[in-house]
Structures are given as C-alpha cells and as structure tokens.
Amino acid sequence: MPTHELAPDIPTDVLAAEQAHLAESRAALKAMRAHAQSLSADAAGDWVSQQILQSLLDQRVAALADHPDTPLFFGRLDRAPDARDESGEEQAELPATIYVGRRHVHDGHSKPLVIDWRAPVSRAFYQASPADPMGIVRRRRFGYHGGELTAFEDEPLGEGVEIGPSKILTEEIERPRTGPMRDIVATIQPDQDEIVRSTLAQTVCVQGAPGTGKTAVGLHRAAYLLFTHRERLARSGVMIVGPNRAFLSYISSVLPALGEVKVDQTTVAGLLGEHAAPEDPLVSAVKGDARMAAVLERALWLHIVKPTEGVVFTKGAYRYRVADYEVREIVASLRGTTRYNPGRAALAQRLAHMVLVRMEQRGESPDDRVQDAVARSKPVKQLVDAVWPKLTPEQVLHRLLSDPAFLAQAAKTDLTAEEQELLIWRKPYRSWKSAKWSAADAALLDELRDLMERTPSLGHLVVDEAQDLSEMQLRALGRRCRNGSATVLGDLAQGTTPWSTSSWKSVLEHLGQPEGEVTELTLGFRVPREVLDYAARLLPSIAPDLAAPRSLRPGAGSLTIRQGLAIAQAAEEALAKEGSIGVIVPDALVADVSKALADLPHAVLDPDAAEEHRLLIVPATLAKGLEYDHVIVVEPADIVAAEPRGLARLYVVLTRAVTSLTVLHDKPLPEQLAA
Ligand SMILES: Nc1ncnc2c1ncn2[C@@H]1O[C@H](COP(=O)(O)OP(=O)(O)OP(=O)(O)O)[C@@H](O)[C@H]1O
C-alpha cells in the first residue's frame, strides 16, 4: 500500500496560482511569437540570403505557435536550496522552481517561465525518486481538460516516503484512443527516459513486449537528440524507419507535436525502392542473408576485364602510347581500393596522366585541362568502357539471377548449390530493364549501389520493428548511419518475415553497430493484463526465451472469446462504447467482413486516406505497431494458416487492444491458445 495519498484535495488557491502561471506563460509565448514576426529578413545582403533568413524566421514563428489544446507545461519541480547538479556543482543560477513543458518560454528578460522537457535540468522530472531525489523536494504533475489546467498532484521527494501511483499517469494510459499516436512527454517513465536521453554517440537497441512504449521512446529520443545536437543533426539528418505506411501515418504527428518537423519518416521500401514482386519465402531468405554481400561484391568486380591492349592518344603529328602492361598495373592498383564508379573515373585520369607524362618527356608543358581532355577523349573512354564497364546495380543483379555460371563464379563457396539454384529465376527476364524486383532484391540493389558509389550517412536513424528486417536490409540501414548512431526497436516475439531475427546481437552486428547496447522495456502501457496473458500463451511457441510480458493495466473483463462469426454484433457492441475499433481479419477475408459490416459506417484501413473512421477493418498483415480501444479478431486459425510465421502474426494481432479484445472464431482456435 502506498503510504502517501496523491493530491487528496486540490487547494483552490494553489490551483489558481498555477493557472495564473499558465496564463503568464501563454502571454509570454505570444510575445515571443510577435517578436519573431516583427523581425525582417531585409537585413540579409543578397536575395538568396534574404530568402534563407525569411524561411528560418517563418519556421521560428511556426515553432512558437501556442496550441490551446496542448498543455504548455505539465510539471513543476521545486528544488532544495542547496541543490547540486550531477557534476556536484551548485545550481545557483537555476530558479528554485521550474516548470517543465514542451518548449522554452521566457518573459522577455530571460527569466524562464517554462523549461523544455529535453533540457538537462528537466531530467529530474522523469528520474527523481524518494530514494534519489536529485535535489528536488517536490514534483508536481498537472492535469488538463482541453487546454484548461484543472488539477495537479504532488509527490514529496525529500521526505523519504514511498510515492503511490500517479493518477495523472493512470488517466493518461486509460484515456480512450482516437486518431493518431500522441506524444508521452508528460508521463515518460524512468526506464524509458534513460533510453530517450542516451547520448548521440550511443546506439541503443530496445527489446520490449507489445505496448511497452518502444515506438514512443524511439520518437522521443529523436526529438531529444535534435534538441541537444540541433546544428549537427540539422546538417546530417535524422530518419525514422517503420514497417509500413499505415504505421507511419499513425505515428506521423508525434514529432511535429514536439516541434520537430524536419525528420524524414519512411519505410524500408520507401528507402530502398518500392519493389514488391511476389517471391517464394525460401528465396527471400537466401537473398536476405548477409552472405549475399560477398557474392554481390564479387559479382560486381568480376565485370572488370583483364586489359590486353594499351591506349594510343594522338595529338597533332604525335602519338602517345600507354602500354597494355601499364594499363594492367593501373587497374590492379585501383581494384579493391576504391568504390566501382570512382575507380572508373580514376582509371581514366591515371591513363590521361601517363599520356601527360609522355607529353612532358617530349618537352611539352600540358596543364590540368589537357589531362581532363585526354581523360574524356575517345580512345581513353573506349578503353575504360572495355576494361571497367559502366554498370547499373540492376544490370549486375539481372546477370547474377539469370546466369547460373556467373552466379557460381560469384558465389564461390559462400552459397551451396541448392541455394544457388533457388536464386536463379525460374523464368529469367529478357533484360534488366524489364525485370520485376522483389522486396529482397531491393536490398541487394542497394548493396550494389553502395559498392559503386558511397551512400551518404545520416546523423541518427530510428529503426522500428527491427526484428523483421533481413541481414541485407540491416546492412542497407547500417550504411545510412555509419557515421552516426541508431535507435533499434523491436520484439523478437513479433517477427513475421521469412528472415525475422532471434538475436539482437546479430541485428546490431549486421547494422554495423556491434557496440550498441541492448536494453529491455518490460512494463506494458497498452494491453490489459487479461488480454496480454491470453496472447502470451503463444510465447513458448514463438519466442521461448522471452519472459512473459507484464501489464500496468489490470483490465478485468477485457477479454471475450466467442464461437461463431457474429462480426456485426460484436462491432455494434463496441460502437456503443467510447474509443476506436479495429476489426482485425485475415487478409483474404477483408472483402467478406466489409460486406458483413455493410450496415455500419466503416472503412478498410488505408494509410493514404485522410478521413478518420471509428470502425476500421484492418488486414492482419498491417496491424503491426497500431492500437485500437476495442479490437475484434476474426478467425485466428486463418491468420495462423496464412503465412509461415502465422503464430507470431496472431500474437501481434491479439496485442493491439487498449480496452477490450473480442475473438470470434468458426474454426477451432490454434491449440496453443486453447490451452
Ligand atoms: N510513459 C507512457 N505514458 C503514457 N503512455 C505511454 C507511455 N509509454 C507508452 N505509452 C502508450 O502505450 C501505447 C503503446 O506504446 P508503443 O506503441 O510505443 O508501444 P510498442 O512497444 O512500440 O508496441 P508494439 O510492440 O506493439 O508496437 C501507446 O499508446 C503509447 O502512447
């Protein structure tokens, strides 16, 4: 039992004072915005600088907008007079009281009215505890209704008493879900905060059961890093990679709500190419294996032909010759020391340089322009094309997948004969231009592209549902953060692809971040305990090494299992309650279920549709990462039968519910569930 009752009565004078601080902060924010609006870009010298400055000013004005429905601050810290920061230095310059909110607000004389949640001093709001008060004597959490500050609760940290659960946190978690995902700045938990605030240099990998806040934490870490390393990351960029577009549209407003609008959010397909030709999972599995990297590298370099001729460059009456052995020496010295395309360019330049040397030997004094002209001349170009041919990734992969002898030569002992046979197209495409590529091919093409030309690296990459990525896809993502770091999020139990991983260590290695730290989130914020326990019956079959997940939400009476597919009835029951409804169905049943629900206004999940529907039919393969208040799962046996890792798909589907889960089945339930 908690020994401390949280905010039993709210004293109205204290509440009024806090409301006054809110009003003062709002007015100050308005003044900051008015000031930003009054600034002129005219001061900049030329029109280009003016345009850049104007766009910066516009961004600043937009960032200073006050959204009346969003609390400007959500917490307050009162520090002990002799508070010291972590370095042991006294924080004399800090006010005794700080308000923690979404952004900095000052009163025009640099007195802070609200401090950004990401600032170092705000850390205590998330981390301080009676055991380690971090110099804080009282933490106050505010409750809002609409934009109105209506409540608060206090946690005395200096008195050494145990603190009970926060009602405001409980309410936030219990709140019915409508529309897209919201930020969690007001209620980030200490273990989540550790991850959010880990340093930019550190790659972090988070294993967590469904609903433990992995996605939320990843997005908040991006916002934190952008705040802490604004300039550096503005240059190098931050990117979020999610499993599908439905998921991206669900999470799309979290970062903008935190003031971060310049973050790319995409899928692996969006990044590597929207290729989706159907493919046997066994073939995809071979193509996804990291051994393909060596095969591709050899395949590319096998295109280099041993030079058997030299080059002759004619200028006026003179002929300048580079002998065949000299060409061989140049090629040999370049091979393996550069990427393919720069190597091609370097070969032309080196040949031209030799011609130049010959010219000088003859007493001429050619300059750099002559060298460029020679490098671009017909004989040099012809030789380079013959020896170091111009290639596209598609050309190389087309040859590899249609020519068994070439594949064997490139594969050496890296792939077995059976694997090579699997890789060769049953019906080869006429040319690389007409080839239809699969999702697995997209990662191979990307690998080849990088062997030809270096892929630029971003400053930070957040990869969600990372358990689903192949080794080759991880390599593709890894090169996009090779000069930076990553946040890798996932759940080994939710792996549904032919190449789903069973080890985070291996994920980090293929990502090129072997030093990354693996950490775990264990407390579920979404799924009621009863539902989570039910879904966890599948764990021994899909991820036997994982501990059963825990839920913060008791949710008694949240689970209903019914024989028969009375979908419309279940939907009507859910419609009578508050919140969103997801009817998750085997992909093949989408049309039938839509017919069964014809009398109720509904939609089939469409990531591109702006329109929102309370009642949504969700194909099982798109449910990953999403959540609904009420979930109706139709015919689990078909969801399991539809794909090789169908049981894991069912685990994903059963863990989307915030308030209630209704399982409808005609066919017997999978035996693991019936247990
Ligand atoms: N500290 C928190 N305070 C309030 N809500 C939270 C907190 N952490 C997570 N949540 C909420 O819990 C829900 C689940 O979070 P999230 O989607 O990030 O989990 P996940 O671990 O990515 O789940 P999954 O593995 O199913 O994709 C979301 O609605 C999120 O806003």
From TrEMBL:
Q: Which PROSITE patterns match?
A: UVRD_HELICASE_ATP_BIND
GO BP terms, alphabetized: recombinational repair
Q: Which residues bind ATP?
A: 208-215
The GO molecular function terms of this record are: 3'-5' DNA helicase activity; ATP binding; DNA binding; hydrolase activity
- GO-annotated cellular components: cytosol
The record's keywords, sorted A to Z, are: ATP-binding, Helicase, Hydrolase, Nucleotide-binding
* UvrD-like helicase ATP-binding domain span: 187-528
- Source domain of life: Bacteria
Protein name per its UniProtKB record: AAA family ATPase
Q: Which species does this protein come from?
A: [Actinomadura] parvosata subsp. kistnae
